Amino acid sequence: MIYSLCLVLILIGLYGVVTKKNIVKIVISLAIMEYGVNLFLILIGYRNNGVHPGIEESESFTHFLAHSVDPLPQALVLTSIVISLGMLALMVGMCIRLYERYGTFDITEIRRLRG
Amino acid sequence: MNNLIPLFVAIPLGIAFIIPMISRRIKGVAAFLGNVTMIGLSVMSLVSIGKSGMYHMGGWDTPIGIDLRLDGLSVLMLLSISIVGFAATLFSTRYMQSYTSRHRYYSLFLFMVAGMNGAVLAADIFNLYVFMEIASIASFALVAFGCGHEDLEAAFKYIVLGGVAATFVLFGIAIIYGVAGTLNMAHLAMKIGNKPLSNPLVFALGLFISGFGLKAAMVPFHSWLPDAHPSAPAPISAMLSGVLIKAIGVYVIARLLFNVFGITPRVSLVLQILGTLSMIVGVLLAIGQWDMKRLFAYHSISQVGYIIIGLGLGTPLGIVGALYHLVNHSVFKSLLFLNAGAVEYSTGTRNLKRLGGLYKTMPVAGSTSLIASMSIAGIPPFNGFWSKLIIIIACVMSGHYWLGAWAVLVSILTLASFLKVQRYGFFDSLKISVEQIKKTPPMMALAMILLAVLCVGMGFFVITGFDSPIIIGPAAESLLKGVFVL
Question: Which residues of A are less than 8 Å from B147 in CB distance?
């Protein structure tokens, strides 16, 4: 159920990227898409009533294995957040430069290349 | 050997950080360091021909740790990346002097090389994704490097589509991790390879093909390429068209389909359809272009179609043809883009209607572009002929007569559009006065001659037989061995 919500989030983002005309809104839609994927990754590692994935001395190993959440997706999500941050910064920078050149954020007016 | 593998990533990455730090104090050090790094990488990849190995990061064993894997296919890709990259940096020394903040250019260039080297060496799909993003982000910035109107517009289109592609790929990786519980390619192949795919895995495969297909500019996903490649500075166009779309597009598709999922008739049909579409649509759009670089960019789409068809056949000969065409295309297409750059540098325009007669005034660019045009059009002694021939023979031998016929037809159309380039650009009467044309600087000429010599020389790869030409044979073998075994 909650997995399909992630899919919905991704599709909302994709819809925004395809239909929006304002380039800032396109950037935001792309960010929504990335959040959807990140949430999905986190959910894969999630376990109901799970404990944090660090073993304590008092805890037995089998108990830990049966209850801890999967730490790998969390590491993956951190990496992917950093990547999308870099991407977002570059995109916003590009938006500023585009606004300086064209004086508009409207994608339908930023059209010199054709063919 | 094994300890040499991480250096392919570490050296360009390290130098990329050093360049901005020291370039303020010493003038011209950025260009020097860039060239030296690319020479070093070329030597390293020449040394690693015929070798294979595995490097475990931090000493952890395979399913747990992060691996870098070097095999025949990686060596082939490393070679083409570093040699084309070297030609591009050599060309940039003079070409980039009209741009400001050149040290950032070299820094980004080396980031791109590090990303591509990492992507072809990575042995698990998440690292593949990370390296792919390093290469792509550097390439987004490099496309926008001129900061002109067209540059920014093209780069924005490229970054949005690139971002969508990256999201698809990450989503696919997440699904695969959820199903198989591992990310290492060899371990993954053991769990899911060569078995009928379950529904989530089919979805993931679809996401991968569309994500990496977007990076490789296959036809339904090609719209960014004809804008982004011509807008970038010429050496960057050469890198993007020459190696980037292959290292993070075609290579990854080949690696995942053959070594991880295992190729099935249905997947191979999808590849054949995508390949044929790219081939035909690319060349039809190319013929009408008058901007030299834009014409070349459309031809990249069309030539990638050939590679995808060869891979889609799945027969040994088809794979050899595809990989051979991959390296050939990276050489002659980057040469063509460097020619266009030299023409633009000397005359200030790349519109074919305003050019003409350059064969006399720019002998080096003229003759090398003739060699490259004949290579891409498939005229016999040059390398492009042999690889296209192998692909067409493979089509016929596996019973796909129509594919072979389309490939021949597209080759003829390619010839037609390159005759147009030669006729209007280099052979016609001179339309600009001779005094206005700047001389080609020796560094640029050297870079073009290097690639032209490769164009002629790589035609001789087939002397050891169609089935396994030197260097390409081992690369094809690493795909043909099927899914990885631990």
Answer: 97
> Model's pTM, two decimal places?
0.93
Nearest Cα to B340, choosing from B437, B257, B233?
B233
Please tell me the predicted confidence (pLDDT) of residue B485: 66
Number of domains in chain B: 1
Top mean-pLDDT range of A65-74, A100-109, B268-277, B461-470: B268-277
**Is B153 close to A113, i.e. CB distance below 8 A?**
yes
Asked whether the beta carbons of residue A110 and residue B227 sit closer than 8 angstroms, the reply is no
Residue located via tokens 């495969």: B205
CB contact under 8 A, B170 and A17: no
Residue B217 lies in a domain: yes
Gap from A82 CA to chain B (nearest CA, Å)? 10
Burial bucket for residue A49 (CB in 10 Å: 0-12, 13-18, 19+): exposed
User: Which domains can be identified in chain A, with CATH numbers?
Assistant: 2-102 (1.10.287)
Q: Interface pTM (ipTM) of the complex?
A: 0.93
Find out whether B444 and B338 touch, Cβ atoms under 8 Å: yes
A97 vs B147: CB contact, 8 Å cut-off?
yes
A87 touches chain B (CB under 8 A): yes
Domain that holds residue B320: 2-480
The predicted pLDDT at position B235 comes to 93
CA neighbor of B165 nearest in space, from B139, B199, B185: B139
- Which of B130, B159, B289 is closest, CB to CB, to A79? B130
Would B485 be classed as within a structural domain? no
CB contact under 8 A, B167 and A37: yes
DSSP state of A77: H
Residue B345 lies in a domain: yes
Contacts of B226 in chain A (CB under 8 A): 115
Strand stretches in B259-324, DSSP E? none
B486 is a domain residue:
no
